[in-house]
Amino acid sequence: NGGPYLQQLFELPGYQNSIYKKVSGDGTIDISDGSIHEIRVHVKDAYGNTSFLSARVQFTGTASALPASTAKMFYPQMVDGLENTDAEFFLGERCLYDSVHINYKRTTAAAPTVVSAVHSIGAAYIPLQDSMLIRIRPTQSLTPDQLSHTVMQRFAGTRQEVQSCDWQKGWAIARFREMGSFQLVLDETPPQIIPIGFKDGANMSKASRIVFTVKDNLESFRNFRATLDGKWLRFTNDKGRSFIYTFDEHCLSGPHTLQVSVEDIAGNKAVKTYSFVR
User: Which of 56, 88, 216, 255 has the greatest count of CB atoms below 10 A from its CB?
Assistant: First the structure.
């Protein structure tokens, strides 16, 4: 949770496609005999430069007990899940690295666009090797059009992600690679197409490029497409924030019509048309 990375010196029981090279066993050691054991760690870089760390460890027979948990225990290499009246989740045999207690909590949503309860599953710091399956039932009746614009949202702290849903007998189904809190959101708001330093009717004879940014209420926009005079035009993208076209032989001198369209994960679409002179 604090940010630093730790390197484990043993292989977790559910680790698939392991990076560990097994020499003798999986790296775990048994020190229950109470004797002093010598541990030496070698770290080598690509040029052969090596550092060493030596330590001695001894078991004193006073192992600290883990706090008791009422959450269900899940195990690696097993298919398991939890089912409630309006939420279910399932972990495949490739999901978990190790055994872990996974809490579940249901709370009432406050936002008017949220059409389900909020279902908190586990914690974001529990790593998954494969996606988990989430099923949520809405708390209100939705029309077919509303169903097509309903997405499943995961959030943990300030982070969020959105997935489109498959529907099966009134249940929304989606897969996520991280745990957190999950809810169904009715998204009927199209994304916004925002030109930067560019407007309809502009004279672009001295400009070197055209730039747009896209904003979406759930930050889930996709399928950016631009056409110039009816022909597809390639825009580059800088990590999802700006879409940039640098003038080339596909945009010669004279008047032009540029059409830009963007669609979000909920299927809401925005289209803008601009005229300019090059």
Answer: 216
Q: What pLDDT digit, counting tens, does each position of 224-266 carry?
A: 999 999 999 999 987 767 999 999 999 999 999 999 999 999 9
Angle at 225 between CA 223 and CA 230, to 5 degrees: 150
Position 31 pLDDT exceeds 70: yes
By CB atoms closer than 10 A (0-12, 13-18, 19+), residue 235 is: middle
- Distance (Å) of CA 197 to CA 155, 204, 232, 244, 263: 34, 10, 22, 12, 23
* 167-173 mean pLDDT: 97
pLDDT score at 179: 97
The mean per-residue pLDDT over the stretch 134-147 comes to 97
Find the mean pLDDT for residues 89-95: 97
What is the 3-state secondary structure of the chain? Answer: CCCCCCCCCCCCCCCCCCCCCCCCCCCCCCCCCCCEEEEEEEEECCCCCEEEEEEEEECCCCCCCCCCCCCEEECCCCCEEEECCCEEEEECCCCECCCEEECEEEECCCCCCECCCEEEECCCCCCECCCEEEEECCCCCCCHHHHHCEEEEEEECCEEEEEECEEECCEEEEEECCCEEEEEEECCCCCEEEEECCCCCEECCCCCEEEEEEECCCCCEEEEEEEECCEECCCEECCCCEEEEECCCCCCCCEEEEEEEEEECCCCEEEEEEEEEC
